[in-house]
Amino acid sequence: MNLLSIGASYRTADVAALERLAIPESAVPGLLQKLVAQPYVGEAVVVSTCNRVEVYAAVSGFHGGLGDICNVLSEHSGIPASELAGHLYVHYGEAAVQHSFRVSSGLDSMVVGEAQILGQLRDAYHAATEVDSAGRLLHELMQQALRVGKRAHAETGIDKAGQSVVTAALDVAADHLGGDLTGRSALVIGAGAMGALSVATLTRTGVGPLRITNRSLERADRLAEAYGATAVPFEELETALGEVDIVVSATASTEPVLTRDRLEAALAGRSGSAHPLVVLDLAVPRDVAPDAADLAGLVVVDIDGLAASRRALPAAAETAAVEQIVAGEVDNFLGWLRGAEIAPTVAALRTRAEDVVSAEMRKLISRRPEFTEEQRADVSRTLHRVVQQLLHSPTVRVRQLAAEPGGDQYAALLRELFDLDVPLATHADAVPEIGGKA
């Protein structure tokens, strides 16, 4: 099995495409099961966030795995495979490992260094574990990716500014509201993970008064109590919209929450305001209806707009430090992978040795029936010890050599020398590395 990563993000797809590709949390288990049911896919993890949808998979062949995963994504999104291909990036083998570590460390995020992706990767890994779609290869990859992300944040200053998609969005909002958000009234729609992050960030920024609304008023109440905000019943959304300067909408709704009619009504109540109503739409699918964006007195900033205005990136030195961490961890992972790949060959060699000992013992017993059970056991233990001592140093050394670049040749040599029959995944259609759009 080899690693294959396929996905679309704010770098390769607009919000409209990401909306169609987005995978609701409730649909993830079914999609994972569908993926591992494909002929070339043995393991799968799915990551779906506001600005990326990715599949990490262990596949038995590059082209077959690519086709299987693209077909599943095409069926899920309703985007024809030919159209979908234009939005996807593909990483294979070493490139897939590097990509996963760059994602976990925040290097591939819209706002470089944001830490939210770590929680999203952890959730994706847990979802795969629950439906048993992650095997040994993806278990190791995901655990190492999470560890690399933690290292990046602990050992460098890449996130010292507390950056997130929310802070980047608030920077854009400040441009439209005189440059300072202190004391500006705000409303957060949605009490999920992104909503909670938005409330925390707004509070830290000094925005206030702050209101929170959610279809479940109980969840809005809990979040509001934690941050000293005010919970608003969802039925009073239109009224609340007309009384604030900033709206952060981050729901999991599959339909627009902020329709044209709803926003028109809110804007009518703000007719005397000197500033526009700034709506930060951080949801995928979008919470703001497309036909509402041109309303007078309204500024909508969505994921597309945010991607076009990337700012406040960490210093080059911090980014370089994280890149160095990633490079070292990729080498470590590849060493583990090469060592893991030789394990079946070493096991087959030891099995062959045990079979030889057993066969010779049977011959000895047939020739020397007068041996007692104790004598037979002594002879058997002696033979086994001799074989184990003879194999110990070579097998330890071959594991060490296999962990080095080009180490796969040692496994092949062992199989050839001892005529070992070791089941191996076919790599006939594999390519050394595929790096699509970054």
Model description:
This protein has 438 residues and is α/β, with parallel strands linked by helices. Helices cover 53% and strands 12% of the residues. It has 16 helices and 10 strands. The strands form 2 sheets. A 6-stranded parallel beta sheet has the order 7-6-5-8-9-10. Strands 2-3-1-4 form a 4-stranded antiparallel beta sheet, sandwiched between helices. Helix 5 packs across helix 14 and helix 14 runs antiparallel to helix 15. It is elongated, with a radius of gyration of 28 Å. The C terminus is likely disordered.
Radius of gyration: 28 Å
Largest sheet: 6 strands, parallel
Element order: H for helix, E for strand: EHHEEHHEHHHHEHEHEHEHEEHHHH
Q: What share of residues is helical?
A: 40-55%
Q: What coarse outline follows from CA principal-axis ratios? A: elongated
Spatial arrangement of strands, main beta sheet: 7-6-5-8-9-10
Mean pLDDT: 86
Our estimate of the beta-strand percent is 5-15%
- Put simply, the count of helices is 16
Please give the number of β-strands: 10
**Structural class, please?**
alpha/beta
Poorly predicted spans: 425-438
Cα(first) to Cα(last) distance is 24 Å
